[in-house]
Design a protein that fits this description.
Keywords: Membrane, Transmembrane, Transmembrane helix
Protein name: Integral membrane protein
Number of strands: 0
Shape: elongated
Length: 116
């Protein structure tokens, strides 16, 4: 099960890399890169599956990470996915605040993952 967990971990990291990279690419254009939504959805689903596999297989017998941390990361990931969906649907009319909210929340999610 550790291999399955690691596969989901890689997908999770790749998803966030797509979100952050898509945000940076979108800074010079009026629209939001479509990959941002797909990356956020991939990261959220892979994160949920990582927690499920770890809990099911007993990988976290020592307690693992705080479920509050997992919950906060999940809420932020869902918010990012919704904002990205709305941003992609708006096309060239996306507000800079919405675009920067996606980038900022992505960085917050990374900081929570590393430091909390």
């Amino acid at each position: 099960m550790e291999i399955v967990y690691n596969v989901f971990a890689v997908l999770h990291f790749v998803g966030w890399a797509i979100v952050l990279g898509g945000y940076f690419v979108s800074l010079k254009s009026a629209a939001l890169n479509k990959g941002v939504f797909h990356g956020a959805a991939t990261a959220a689903v892979a994160g949920i599956l990582m927690v499920g596999v770890a809990e099911m297989s007993g990988m976290w017998d020592d307690g693992g990470p705080s479920m509050m941390k997992i919950g906060i990361k999940l809420v932020i990931a869902v918010i990012i996915a919704v904002l990205a969906f709305v941003g992609v649907r708006q096309g060239d009319k996306i507000s800079p605040a919405l675009k920067h909210s996606i980038g900022g929340l992505t960085l917050v999610n990374i900081i929570v993952a590393v430091f909390v």
